[in-house]
Automatic annotation (TrEMBL), chains A, B:
<keyword id="KW-0012">Acyltransferase</keyword>
<dbReference type="GO" id="GO:0046872">
    <property type="term" value="F:metal ion binding"/>
</dbReference>
<protein>
    <recommendedName>
        <fullName>Phosphate propanoyltransferase</fullName>
        <ecNumber>2.3.1.222</ecNumber>
    </recommendedName>
</protein>
<keyword id="KW-0808">Transferase</keyword>
<dbReference type="GO" id="GO:0051144">
    <property type="term" value="P:1,2-propanediol catabolic process"/>
</dbReference>
<dbReference type="InterPro" id="IPR008300">
    <property type="entry name" value="PTAC"/>
</dbReference>
<keyword id="KW-0479">Metal-binding</keyword>
<keyword id="KW-0862">Zinc</keyword>
<comment type="similarity">
    <text>Belongs to the PduL family.</text>
</comment>
<dbReference type="Pfam" id="PF06130">
    <property type="entry name" value="PTAC"/>
</dbReference>
<comment type="function">
    <text>Involved in 1,2-propanediol (1,2-PD) degradation by catalyzing the conversion of propanoyl-CoA to propanoyl-phosphate.</text>
</comment>
<comment type="pathway">
    <text>Polyol metabolism; 1,2-propanediol degradation.</text>
</comment>
<dbReference type="GO" id="GO:0016747">
    <property type="term" value="F:acyltransferase activity, transferring groups other than amino-acyl groups"/>
</dbReference>
Amino acid sequence: MDDKLIDLLVDKISEKLNESQSFLVEASGRHVHLSRKDIDALFGEGYQLKLDRYLSQPGQFVSRERLTLVGPKGVLQNVVILGPERADSQVEVSATDALTLGQKVPIRESGNIENTPGITLVNGNRSVTIDKGLIVAQRHVHVAEKDAAKLNVNHGDIVKVKIAGENRSLIFDDVVIRVSEKFATVMHIDYDEANACGFTKGIKGTIVK
Amino acid sequence: MDDKLIDLLVDKISEKLNESQSFLVEASGRHVHLSRKDIDALFGEGYQLKLDRYLSQPGQFVSRERLTLVGPKGVLQNVVILGPERADSQVEVSATDALTLGQKVPIRESGNIENTPGITLVNGNRSVTIDKGLIVAQRHVHVAEKDAAKLNVNHGDIVKVKIAGENRSLIFDDVVIRVSEKFATVMHIDYDEANACGFTKGIKGTIVK
């Protein structure tokens, strides 16, 4: 084979390999997860969140209910509640939202809410003030257990992910890998990050070594 | 020399090299540049913008005057005007701002405003509607001519820049290099990008090959 043919083959093979190692990227807007106790307080004893639409993660859904977040300096209205209910309430906002609320908010992995600030949640004339759980979510890739070997990653790995957005390609470092048999393989970033990488719906990410 | 010593030397030397090849990163908020004609219309014939403070780029300054931007669906108040005046008015916003205004805004290099949308600028009871010039600024590094060789870049190059922000390190691709004897060597990103990379004041960027 001549050199050109070899180059062509290498290009085609690596393109194919990259394709199989890429995954969908989704931009998550601000949202709230609620505990049973906080649903009771905000919507009434035993209230069940109503399904609006399912999300890419199996069983996770956008509910029809909305809440208002009240921070020290500002308010965010019409904030989505995701179901199903969780052990602890958690509020995920962007760094831009944190500025609007007037609250310093740490970047945390979902569920890791020790020593995070609280916030007041309002539904009409009912309200709850949680004493922790307000975070900026660390960018992460949900990896289905069956895909972990193919992507060559383990739960807890910190990786770099390349996103080829229009005019704004970038490589996110500090991306945490979360592996579970309950997950679909999808990367989640917030709206600040989506804006910074030229996000469009259906865009793919690829882990770079 | 033994292997450990060599490794240590390589680490120390590359650290030193990286240091000399790094530059300050600044986050630019939304701002307006105005032509003489538009200053006349918004502030009166022959009006001179008043200096508030100088910026890192020699001669460029934040003025004391502010404007309101009126888009199809929303308004941004108290927007900074940068001086001195330019040949063409130009309004630089973030993708988040574009959403607030309700206007699709392209990512463009400063000055490249053909076929960009216009916007209405308001100062009290005076207003001007520009027919083009509304852009999301492409991330860029201003490079002083004397630093271009050291950084191994030429005007117009598209490079990758690593930013080691807290918990949110990333590598921006599609960064344009602008070389001029009038520039100080500083990288400019917008607030979306600043939020995505864990920006803090004084943070440095490094070109990666």
